[in-house]
């Protein structure tokens, strides 16, 4: 399969990814930015693809180890090739890969290496679309973007809750229309939820939401100030967005997570 090797964070790490399939972009970088600069412990990147978000965390936050979790054999191959790059030698002892379906439960999940209460931070970028949406004919894009199960958010957040330590932080990026199923899936598992809308421009509707929550917290849902991608007349990122996209800044919660150690 044709592929490219692309530099991220001004060359701090490189990614091997399919030339015509699902390619990493702003969503992965925003997801990674939700991990604070001073975070410690273990991070799980569920549905990691070639590893863009997980490596973005590892490249910016020296105090964490990262596990990339992916089910697609094709994307697992790209992730392994990514970690084998000479440019990513710094990640050898801090980033590993688990081949697993995120929806696995109980003993089956533990058997593939996703242990209970093992992670302090979990990030996830699940498929956005619903079965009735018009889907791309490209099979890699379709797998990355198409929701095949109406209970998908519940499956992914159930796994996130199972593998995370009490007090740990989960973050999910999704379309705004998914807010209800996300909040339903968080209920009973996570609380103290913070929702950050992401707008292309200040006068437009939100195109994404970043949702963070704390395991076993009973806090309320709080909406945070919007993140604006373009704050000028052109198509360039605004200063803040450019910093988030290139690993020069974090987007931490207003109420910091305190994972149990």
Automatic annotation (TrEMBL):
It comes from the Bacteria. One of its GO terms (molecular function) is methyltransferase activity. The keyword Transferase applies. It holds the Pfam family MTS. Residues 251-261 have a biased composition (Basic residues). Residues 29-176 form the Methyltransferase small domain. One of its GO terms (biological process) is methylation. Keywords: Methyltransferase, S-adenosyl-L-methionine, Transferase. InterPro entries: SAM-dependent_MTases_sf (IPR029063), Small_mtfrase_dom (IPR007848), tRNA_Adenine-N(6)_MTase (IPR050210). Residues 239-261 are annotated as: Disordered. PANTHER family: TRNA1(VAL) (ADENINE(37)-N6)-METHYLTRANSFERASE. This is Methyltransferase. It comes from Pseudohoeflea suaedae. The lineage of its organism: Bacteria, Pseudomonadati, Pseudomonadota, Alphaproteobacteria, Hyphomicrobiales.
């Amino acid at each position: 399969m044709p592929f490219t090797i692309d530099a991220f964070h001004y060359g701090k790490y490189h990614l091997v990814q399919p030339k015509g399939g699902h390619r990493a972009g702003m969503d992965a970088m925003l997801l990674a930015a939700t991990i604070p600069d001073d975070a410690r412990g273990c991070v799980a990147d569920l549905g990691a693809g070639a590893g863009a978000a997980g490596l973005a965390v590892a490249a910016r936050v020296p105090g964490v180890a990262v596990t990339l979790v992916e089910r697609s054999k094709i994307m697992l191959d790209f992730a392994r090739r990514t970690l084998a790059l000479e440019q990513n030698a710094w990640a050898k002892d801090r980033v590993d890969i688990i081949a697993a379906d995120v929806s696995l439960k109980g003993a089956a999940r533990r058997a593939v290496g996703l242990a209970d209460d093992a992670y302090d931070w979990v990030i996830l970028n699940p498929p956005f679309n619903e079965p009735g949406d018009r889907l791309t004919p490209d099979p890699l894009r379709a797998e990355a973007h198409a929701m095949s199960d109406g209970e998908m958010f519940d499956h992914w957040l159930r796994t996130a809750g199972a593998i995370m330590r009490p007090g740990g932080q989960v973050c999910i990026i999704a379309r705004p229309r998914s807010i209800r199923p996300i909040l339903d899936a968080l209920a009973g598992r996570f609380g103290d939820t913070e929702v950050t809308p992401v707008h292309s421009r200040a006068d437009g509707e939100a195109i994404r939401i970043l949702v963070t929550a704390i395991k076993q917290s009973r806090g309320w849902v709080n909406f945070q100030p919007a993140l604006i991608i373009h704050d000028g007349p052109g198509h360039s990122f605004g200063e803040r967005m450019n910093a988030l996209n290139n690993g020069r800044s974090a987007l931490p919660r207003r109420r910091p997570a305190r994972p149990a150690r």
